[in-house]
């Protein structure tokens, strides 16, 4: 029996980094370089710059003050320099025999006591100097640079021999300044002496541009493929059926619902509804992102889209990321739709993980048999046991909270008998066998984090975007204030004042990801503190304007049972609780118009979009509302640079689009969208915000590639298969 040789430690480390194929190794590019090709003189060395020089050892000693260290005195070019090592082995002392010539590399510091260098890299002098810049790779513990360097170079060699770097783009269609891929990779792993470091580091070198161009083209090709595939998938055309009956109750839901809304739709709402409605009547699946700032009124748009779907005789599902939010939708939409559905023998079903078995069983039956015209719930909706009779439209609220897989699962739920259409297309490039009936529901995703257009185009495979760029009338802007932690007492007085005015208050405590317990103690502690501070406020009141009832402070956090969460939220909605202390579980979607003050504790720890979302919980009624950002200074008595940028942005603007733009600038696209959203590392090399010219080139070339050079297009995609095509479709 052939035994498999166990992997060595560095091999395991490579594997962990995903570097197990020649291609993966070859594409693992250095993140910086060092220039060891020259020796320079101590005389011309600049403070703080790295320098490599040779010198003679004059003396060495171990001293114990101010700290144990090895001090080596060296002489070069008539200057002395002190080398200091704080971590050293006794055996290292041998290296520094008096009179020995050494080659040293490090950063020079000057000072009162002459030149010095901490922890330089030490070699014996006189070895030939390297001819190329030294690449430094992203690595991990136990993986030496020298090992990874060797592995990468052999990866490049093998991949080249395998023909993996043959051109896959017709030469005449390329931008002019690109290097051939093979040369580009060889160069980037071993740049010649004299190459300007900055062109490598800011990735403007023509070798870098080749990689970016290839990557962007691959992305465009797979997006186009996804779009072609979708254009051949069938979806139910959701046309409103003409009703035979003349009864009033059988008018289309869309009409009745519109009429009974307590407000007029905004122009923006009417426009996006039109965009959605005209997609829904087509027999190709809609794939649309509805983005609109917090409070722009996405829910009613969702409700009217659902109504169109139900009018056409199909089921609609609405999925929200938290049970609180889902339940709020359920309440609102049931209120609007149940009376209208009831007369047709239809209902709104509720589905979550926490519900009672009996209720769940009933819901599952209603869904499978089709009485549940609208299904509202959490992730529970995409579980396997949920079988729709005929799902026509799937709506995902706060879609950025869901992973790509979850969206895909929902799309495959149209009918239980459905083939998994996504996978079938994998092998067949762009031709689709449409003889089998495979229906997919229309998909409407909603988000309050607007994504700039260029970014949306490069991150989402295949998506149309509708934008609500207008808030409903009658909103008073939220006043945002910064409070330092030591003004907490003053803040509590404000809380009291709001309550006495009959308003309600949110007090949000941060979620500290590393420490759930700390997170809870934070919220519970604040809860106790506020409960104490507000005790008796109800009876005594200030200046005789007291409340007739007691003041209640509620607590809400993610570790509570769903039932308890719901009860607390309900009490807050009904005004039985005046102050709600909570972790970020209320971040998305919650709508309590009587809340007029939002306090965000440790605001410096929150992300910008998150702060904006939280602030969006107030200012929903007609009363003047305030958002207080309570911040604490860090260890050094300062806020971090990014924290103060975020807080400043919150003070300067309330425009969700502007906030998104700033957030993107602060965090960069990868983090902004979150790994789940962007499908891990969709783009490794290119930056859709910077490489606009290459992006445009790739966009215009992709159609030609598919139509005229399909073989090359497939080869190109295969090379860049590191980008997962499933993700690109979602
Ligand atoms: P979001 O876009 O953040 O999901 P919601 O759908 O929760 O916003 O709407 C916020 C509030 O605005 C709700 O109370 C909703 O009833 C109300 N609303 C929505 N559309 C309008 C409108 N056209 N006129 C007045 N109020 C509206
Ligand atoms: Mg919402």
| Approximate strand percentage | 15-25%
Number of helices: 25
- Show unreliable segments: 416-436, 541-546, 675-681, 723-730
Please identify the structural class as seen in this structure: alpha/beta
Strand order of the largest sheet: 11-12-10-13-14-9-15
Quaternary organization: single chain
Give the N-terminus to C-terminus distance in angstroms.
45 Å
State mean pLDDT (0 to 100 scale).
83
Number of separate strands:
21
Would you summarize the structure shown here?
With 730 residues, the chain is an alpha/beta fold. Helices cover 39% and strands 17% of the residues. It contains 25 helices and 21 strands.
Overview of this protein structure:
By secondary structure, the protein is of the alpha/beta class. Helix content is 39%, strand content 17%. The chain is built from 25 helices and 21 strands. Helix 18 (562-573) links the parallel strand 18 (553-556) and strand 19 (579-582). Helix 21 crosses helix 22. The longest helix has 27 residues, at 206-232. The radius of gyration is 32 Å and the shape is globular. 41% of the residues are buried. The structure holds adenosine-5'-diphosphate (ADP) and magnesium ion. Magnesium ion is lined by residues 298-299, 397, 589. Adenosine-5'-diphosphate binds at residues 263-266, 269, 292, 294-300, 448, 472, 589, 591, 593, 620.
